[in-house]
């Protein structure tokens, strides 16, 4: 395995995925709230809204090729298949999801079979730094909150570039830290990030401008970025409220130490967004036509 954090990430998601799906459903990512009060929006709907907003935004930038029955999407860090299933249900595109967690890959396959999509969707355990597919296989690479887990951001984006067909689209939504144009990270900020890295088994995160520079350096065209932090930050308030449910508390305790540690990080994420240290960056670009 190319990813030196791979086993830790696998253990974390193998232990926590069942509880997360039971409490939250099939989407293992932020929700999109915009200027809407979080308590007035169903939390699962907010997560679906994030997928739809990302699709709309990519198309608005001019980077989104149309997805249809012939389209092939690579869903990097697919979880239990939430994004792949949503894309198939709404656009009928084909998708292949990859994850480091056998538990997630198995559950995603089960869910696609239950939905009648097994002929269009496939899921496997694979390292995103060394994906077992040929060059120019996919029309889209969809990376929804997996970039933060990559120990080599440049190699990851280079792999995305390799896998895309000429004219293909990259969509990346990922946890970042604040841009460094206002100064280096303080000792307090570095310590805050270190705690998050330890709990979530993250190698490191970078700023959105750094992602943009990497994507442009690799050769992506029309690279567009936006900071969606205000629109997604309320997600962690909702997570905290749900975590106070006695059934959830019991589930966390029964799931083991990895999941317990993950619960401890909720407030770290909330505080990180409140201070401006943690940012939610979105990026899209297009592989040039040959």
From TrEMBL:
Q: Which Pfam families match?
A: Methyltransf_11
**Annotated segments matching region SAM motif II:** 136-144
Residue ranges for the region (SAM motif I) are 73-82
List the residue ranges of the region (SAM motif III).
163-172
Which PANTHER family does this one have? GERANYL DIPHOSPHATE 2-C-METHYLTRANSFERASE (PTHR44068:SF11), ZGC:194242 (PTHR44068)
Q: Name one GO biological process term.
A: methylation
Species: Phormidium yuhuli AB48
Record has Transferase as a keyword: yes
Q: Which domain of life is it from?
A: Bacteria
Q: Which GO terms describe its molecular function?
A: methyltransferase activity
Q: Which residues form the Methyltransferase type domain?
A: 74-171
Q: Which SUPFAM superfamilies does the annotation name?
A: S-adenosyl-L-methionine-dependent methyltransferases
Please give the family membership noted in the entry: Belongs to the class I-like SAM-binding methyltransferase superfamily. gTMT family.
The record's keywords, sorted A to Z, are: Methyltransferase, S-adenosyl-L-methionine, Transferase
The family database entries (InterPro entries) matched by this protein are listed as: Erg6_SMT_methyltransf (IPR050447), Methyltransf_11 (IPR013216), PiNMT-like (IPR025774), SAM-dependent_MTases_sf (IPR029063)
What protein is this chain from? Answer: Methyltransferase domain-containing protein
Per its UniProt record, what CDD domains does this chain match? AdoMet_MTases (cd02440)
């Amino acid at each position: 395995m190319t990813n030196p954090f791979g086993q830790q990430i696998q253990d974390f998601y193998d232990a926590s995925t069942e509880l997360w799906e039971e409490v939250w459903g099939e989407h293992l990512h932020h929700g999109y709230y915009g200027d809407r009060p979080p308590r007035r929006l169903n939390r699962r709907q907010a997560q679906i809204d994030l997928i739809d907003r990302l699709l709309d935004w990519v198309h608005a930038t001019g980077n989104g090729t149309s997805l249809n029955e012939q389209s092939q999407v690579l869903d990097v860090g697919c979880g239990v298949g939430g994004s792949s299933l949503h894309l198939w249900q709404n656009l009928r595109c084909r998708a292949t999801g990859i994850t480091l967690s056998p538990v997630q890959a198995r559950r995603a396959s089960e869910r696609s079979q239950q939905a009648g999509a097994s002929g269009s969707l496939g899921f496997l355990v694979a390292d995103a730094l060394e994906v077992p597919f040929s060059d120019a296989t996919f029309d889209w690479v969809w990376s929804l909150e997996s970039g933060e887990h990559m120990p080599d951001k440049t190699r990851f984006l280079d792999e995305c570039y390799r896998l895309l067909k000429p004219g293909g689209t990259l969509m990346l939504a990922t946890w970042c830290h604040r841009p460094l144009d206002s100064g280096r990270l303080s000792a307090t900020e570095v310590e805050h990030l270190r705690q998050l890295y330890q709990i979530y088994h993250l190698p490191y995160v970078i700023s959105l401008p750094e992602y943009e520079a990497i994507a442009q350096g690799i050769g992506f065209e029309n690279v567009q970025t936006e900071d969606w932090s205000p629109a997604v930050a309320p997600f962690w308030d909702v997570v905290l409220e749900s975590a106070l449910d006695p059934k959830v508390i019991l589930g966390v305790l029964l799931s083991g130490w990895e999941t317990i540690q993950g619960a401890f990080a909720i407030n770290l994420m909330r505080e990180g967004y409140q201070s401006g240290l943690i940012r939610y960056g979105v990026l899209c670009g297009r592989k040039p036509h040959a």
